[in-house]
Write a structure and sequence with these properties.
Length: 276
């Protein structure tokens, strides 16, 4: 549903939409021959948690790169708050800092401190001179310490990134993304290779940050059970196509996309992850 609100000056209007991300019939290719994604249609509500799952090579990470403007679709349209995510689009470049992106590699600088890694999220707000010499104002340092406290890393500000555990590294990556003051958080396999307890701690952390900051979180997972536990909706990607979109309402798994899968197929996917 789109709402148009008129303000005092009749020549201007503010347009807001419940849908923060819209992808319509999106196809994309890395080599102009074989399509990594085929006919993708995705609509994501503002302030929700949307999960994408699928096997390795299915196109999950490619979806995040399209949303982040790191790739352009071969055909179809993508809108992030009415703006096309394209590095050549001036409007998108101006709003890029509102998209926090955590790659599968996490992207931390291993030889600098936890605090310094977190402060990198503030770079878009600095002047050219401040950015060049990484001279962060005191209020940004204070904000970084506040965020590190939120993610459970208070007291570890001076520790080098390479000295951290896997779970701690993910907390730093989340802190750096939150330091951007984003409206959208994209996270690629952020809990992969973590044990069950640590994975849930990280997901709880994201859920808490989402509520505090009214974030829209789009997260790539490999675990159907974990995805359904935290996400409002889960898209299943197979060989570049979205074959299913489901969510949990009460004790019922709801199918939002009628496809070729039967209810038994869906329950088998869910039960399969439960046994892992």
């Amino acid at each position: 549903m789109t709402q148009i609100q008129m303000i005092q000056n009749p020549s201007f209007s503010l347009i807001s939409t419940k849908k923060i991300i819209q992808m319509n019939d999106v196809w994309t290719s890395y080599d102009s021959k074989n399509f990594a994604l085929k006919g993708i249609n995705i609509s994501i509500d503002r302030g929700t948690n949307y999960a994408i799952i699928g096997q390795s090579g299915s196109g999950k990470s490619t979806l995040l790169k399209l949303m982040n403007g790191m790739m352009n679709p071969s055909k179809g349209t993508i809108k992030i708050d009415y703006v096309s995510p394209n590095m050549n689009n001036k409007k998108f470049k101006n709003m890029m800092h509102t998209i926090g992106y955590i790659p599968q590699s996490l992207g931390l600088v291993k030889n600098i401190s936890v605090l310094e890694n977190t402060l990198l999220g503030a770079l878009p707000r600095l002047s050219k001179m401040q950015s060049l010499f990484k001279k962060f104002p005191e209020h940004e340092i204070k904000e970084a310490k506040r965020i590190l406290n939120l993610v459970g890393l208070s007291g570890k500000e001076d520790r080098k990134a390479y000295m951290l555990s896997g779970g701690e590294k993910r907390r730093v990556a989340i802190a750096r993304a939150l330091m951007q003051k984003p409206t959208i958080l994209l996270a690629d396999e952020i809990v992969s290779e973590l044990d069950h307890v640590t994975a849930h701690e990280i997901m709880d952390l994201v859920a808490d940050a989402q509520k505090r900051m009214n974030l829209t979180a789009i997260m790539v997972h490999h675990d159907m059970q974990l995805a359904l536990e935290y996400a409002n909706r889960v898209a299943v990607i197979k060989e570049g196509q979205k074959i299913l979109e489901i969510g949990v309402e009460g004790d019922t798994i709801v199918d939002f996309q009628t496809g070729d899968m039967t209810s038994d197929d869906i329950m088998e996917m869910y039960a399969g992850d439960t046994k892992k």
